[in-house]
Amino acid sequence: MGIELIVIGISTGGSKALKFLIPQFAANFPIPVVIVQHLPVGEAEWLALRLDLLSQLHVVEAKQGDILRAGVVFIAPGGKHLTLSRQADGTVLLELDTQPANSWYCPSVDVLFDSAAEIFGDRLLGIVMTGMGKEGKKGAGKIKASGGKIFTEHESSCIVYSMPREVVEAGLSDRIVSLEDLASVILEELN
Hints:
Blueprint: E1 5-10, H1 14-21, E2 33-37, H2 43-54, E3 58-61, E4 72-75, E5 81-86, E6 92-97, H3 109-120, E7 124-128, H4 137-145, E8 149-153, H5 162-169, E9 175-177, H6 179-190
Parallel strand pairs: 1-2, 1-7, 2-4, 3-4, 7-8, 8-9
Antiparallel strand pairs: 5-6
Helix pairs in contact: 3-4, 4-5
GO biological process, one term: chemotaxis
InterPro entries: CheB_C, Sig_transdc_resp-reg_Me-estase
EC number: 3.1.1.61
C-alpha cells in the first residue's frame, strides 16, 4: 500500500511556504493533507481562505467532525489540537480539543503526528517545514516507529531552520528537500 495521508508541521515562515507549496498540486490530488501551523486563534481561517483562492485543491480550516477526504487540505485552527479518529465504517474524522493542556503549542504538530501515526502507520508521510523550536521531533519519531516516512525542508529555503534541524539531527528524516522541489518530490513519492 502507498501513502494515504500527508501531515505537515510548520511554524515561523509557514504561511509564505504554504502559499508556494499547496498551489502546485492539481485538483485530482489523490489523498488528503492535514496541516498544523502555529497560528493565533482566528488566523487559520484566513490562511485557509487565501490558500483556497490560490489552489486547485479545496483548503479549509478544520472543524470538529470533518471527514478526511482526498483533494482537501485541512488546517488546524489556533487554540485547538487536531487529532484523527477512525470510525467503525472506516471513515476518518478530524477531532478538535484543548487537551493535552500541557503542550507548549496549541495546535501541536506532535499531537497531530502521533494521532495520524496510530491510524495510518506505514501509509503516512509526515513533513516538517520551517519553524522555531523542537515541535515535530517527537511526532516524527512516532511516525518513523509506525513505519511511515518523514521529509524535512532543507535549511536553504527555511525562514527558521530549528524544527527541521531537530528532526534531521535525531536521524528521523528520510529526505531533506528544498521548498522549491518539495511538490515534485511529494508527487514522486505518491507515484
